[in-house]
């Protein structure tokens, strides 16, 4: 068994580590010239944290990430709506980490090279086409910088881990179309800032019609003053957006007005935004779930298979769960096409449910309910608007869909 993994992102590197642990041959092909720490913050929820812990990575994660204590929801006037403990503070066996995407990628890459050797990942190989015969999967590459042809590669299977603009997906589903705009544009940045709310809180505030913020720390103790690296995302409903480009620079004047008076007693939100070294802008997009993503010796994983709105902190987590399911199917042995179909059977409907739920009732639906019930005004007594039991039910419903409710995580551990 020789598995070709297209893409050295979170999903591709996690899959490689899991295949190596199972004794299955693989190689990772990455179009970038080097594996560099790029991106901004992401969450590793308990279901994904469990898988990375089983790979022996929890100490490395704990060293660079922020171990989250609580998830909090506020309206745009700074009034607390709901909060709940997370990770081990909520009784899980595994922590919830908030981490810079580049830090997570570097941890995965370093572990993979240490365990499987430096030749297991090749960089500067841009995949341009895939095909298959009865006996092999075939991938064609060019140099990611010059465009010159690379040698044709063959193996038992190809796994497309190459993101929302996946070359492998376009080959498998040529009429798939482009990303679907949600109607929400996003601006993201990171800022060195003093710890707020104890330094381990994931905060969502406001609502999309007027402006919503997601704020959480992703690195600790950057200087002698104990400042953290704070990841923030500003989200606003708008018909205007630019085609998705993860590196498009955003302009402060395009959105700061929505948050100009957000001076909460625990955080100066406009000050946090203005303190960012750089701002990125991109639209919130996803794609409709596919009817299938395994075709003979070819399959998809992560954003290539099921791109979703970043409204449930679950994109990276679902890719990690994909990797676990696929590695388990390979380890069970059998015909390659049957292995990939078994993987699809495990994950296709589960991830489709997350895609749809992120559109309709992700965790921040809590903010929407309060926004609508109060008419976007401060409340005198929250219980007159919505009960804590109702809010907890909204939160717990999403956990079950995404697979990180306590029962599901505990069951996986017993299995």
TrEMBL record:
Q: Please state every residue range assigned to the domain named FAD-binding.
A: 2-172, 290-356
Q: What superkingdom heads the lineage? A: Bacteria
InterPro entries the record matches: FAD-bd, FAD-dep_Monooxygenase_BioMet, FAD/NAD-bd_sf
Q: Does the keyword DNA repair apply?
A: no
Q: Which Gene3D superfamilies match?
A: 3.30.9.30, FAD/NAD(P)-binding domain
**Keyword terms of this UniProt record:** Monooxygenase, Oxidoreductase
Question: What name is this protein filed under?
Answer: 2-polyprenyl-6-methoxyphenol hydroxylase-like FAD-dependent oxidoreductase
Q: Please give the organism.
A: Aminobacter ciceronei
